Amino acid sequence: MAVNRQILLVETPKGKLAPEHFKLQNGEMPKAKDGEVLLRNRYISLDAANRAWMQGATYREAVGAGSVMAGGAVAEVVESKAPGFEPGDLVFADTGWQDYAALPAKRLLKVPKIEPMTNLLSIYGIAGLTAYFGLLHVGQPKEGETVVVSAAAGSVGSIVGQIAKIKGCRIVGIAGGKGKCDWLKSELGFNEAVDYKSGAVFKSLKAACPQGIDVYFDNVGGEIFEACLAQMRNRGRIVCCGAISAYDGPAPTSGPRGVPGLIVVKRLRVEGFIVMDFYDQSMKAIAELMAWVNAGKLKVQEDVIDGLENAPKALIGLLAGENRGKRMVKVV
Amino acid sequence: MAVNRQILLVETPKGKLAPEHFKLQNGEMPKAKDGEVLLRNRYISLDAANRAWMQGATYREAVGAGSVMAGGAVAEVVESKAPGFEPGDLVFADTGWQDYAALPAKRLLKVPKIEPMTNLLSIYGIAGLTAYFGLLHVGQPKEGETVVVSAAAGSVGSIVGQIAKIKGCRIVGIAGGKGKCDWLKSELGFNEAVDYKSGAVFKSLKAACPQGIDVYFDNVGGEIFEACLAQMRNRGRIVCCGAISAYDGPAPTSGPRGVPGLIVVKRLRVEGFIVMDFYDQSMKAIAELMAWVNAGKLKVQEDVIDGLENAPKALIGLLAGENRGKRMVKVV
Fold first, then answer.
1. CATH 3.30.565.10, applies to A126-276
2. pLDDT tens, B305-314?
3. Cystine design at B102: which of A166, B30, B60, B228 (Cβ 3.0–4.6 Å)?
4. Domain ranges of chain B
5. Closest among A251, A256, A264, A252 to A240, alpha carbons compared
């Protein structure tokens, strides 16, 4: 119990993220001060955004070289010096990549004890809420519209597609590789899937969306954003959720062609969001997601990697598109 | 009366628009068929969008080589073979660059006889309505916010700035040259003006907007769009009205850096519009614009060039940023 394993980011990557940018060390056991809570990590969420945090300040401060790698997790309260938290409670918090963390109570979000606990990081966690609010509140798809989502086999994309389907949309996923594309159609009910690794995305997308795109849920930016932008219908909406293509390397020196020209001509709305902005509406969203899961309309996709020590490799793999559904690390 | 002077677009320009792309010819006098109206042009509107129409289909079909140059105008009814139109009535229509045109009644918009008639193309025409709807309906500025507008001395920009001021915003214009910048501040009440021809736009903009930008009304695209995007505040709005920088030459092969990354991180809304989409609300907008003009809160800026034969030169000059306020050609 006296050892707290930690994974440090030892160097800010310039190009692609690699194992040597991380180091596992045995740190000291943290202690909870007054107003704080000592937490034992259970599952750590892995997200493309983790890589973006290394590039500089975003909606949060940058993760600098020499610090414990940041990351959200479901953790269990071990000891509490703050009112409202008891040993055994589960919380969601940015604990970082380590076994234990002592954090002020105000930085913790108490979560219910549901089984499996992993669902707190997938469908009822950031991934599910990001898909829910991004698609429904920002994208506002109408029945019969064509919705395209990129990184469609990922944690958010796989849920976006299924919710769009529930809402009566025609849903087209963009993913890397035939395996993922077949899976999107056969397992998750996507109408079409475009394999961006198989060549001309623009043409395949055109074949998959002969009427054009009403809502594009963008997780990747770059060339795929450009191909979708060019195929938007008048008054279409582009939901800007992330830009995976730009995270794992130096910042791009230019953006997609057609900005702002096509936005004007087609009267598009291109809108970004961060899931935290919608947290005050979480309960309603979780209730609706639960109803869909229980009715068998929404399949939960999880990809659990065992062992804190495997977090770096798991994140590197996620950036390369290895995962299907929500990837996380089981700490204990 | 038997001659109809017409200006043809004789060649689709590849690079910059030049006088040799046009030709003045004496065409035949058009005749109104049943359901049509014969019009005598009075004032032809010149707009950056005229150049974009030559690049291909936009929200309208392209203007091809060999056809009379397209353009909106205020024209007088000479002869009517359609119910609802009488000789002497004024209409707004896409007559093209010529003395006379015969058009179906359904393509005409009857306009009131106000003095000066030129106001029908400036403050109470497309320029005024574009500024009004784009700023208020799309940009939705709040009192105390910082609003930036590019092509600020142009027909739309000069009105956007003044309306933002009326709404209690801090208003910063971007324009080319010290003369225009001084004029924006001394004549139109802009708080600050940035001369994009004097060097580093990013730095000057930063000095003019130390708190960042809440609403950016974009008329130009390109580098200025990029500089503004990087300085938007969280939850800012970018109104995409036009992309002058991209019209007079080959289409750009890339777009502004920071798309979509900054749109996500700052939760921006980037939205395009075409003024026609708001025509059903024109009467209310014109009434409000008139009240501001009559109260001396909104100055009308017009730049009238005499003679149909001067239209090509006047459009080329407009693309080079020659004009202050609404440029138009007086036909008769």
1. no
2. 999 999 999 9
3. B30
4. 3-122+301-330, 126-276
5. A256
